[in-house]
Amino acid sequence: MTTSFPVRWALVAWLFVISAIGYLDRVNISIAGQSIEKEFHLNNVELGWIFSAFVLGYALFQAPGGSIADRMGPRLVLTMGVIWWGIFTSLITVFTPGAPLLIFLLIAARFLLGLGEAVIYPSANCIIASWVPSAERGIANGIIFSGVGCGAALTPPLITYLLIHYGWRSSFWASAVLGLAAGALWFLIARDKPEDHPWVSSPELAHIRSGLPQQQHTARMPWNAILTNFNIWLVTISYFCYGYAAYIFFSWFFIYLSSVRGLNLRESSYYSMLPFAAMAIGSPVGGWISDRLTRSRGKRMGRCGVAAVGIALSALFIASSTQVDSARLATVVLAAGAGALYLSQSSFWSVSADIGGASAGSVSGFMNMGGQIGGALTASLTPAIASHWGWTASFLVAAVLCAFGSLLWMLVIL
Question: pTM of this prediction?
Answer without folding.
Answer: 0.82
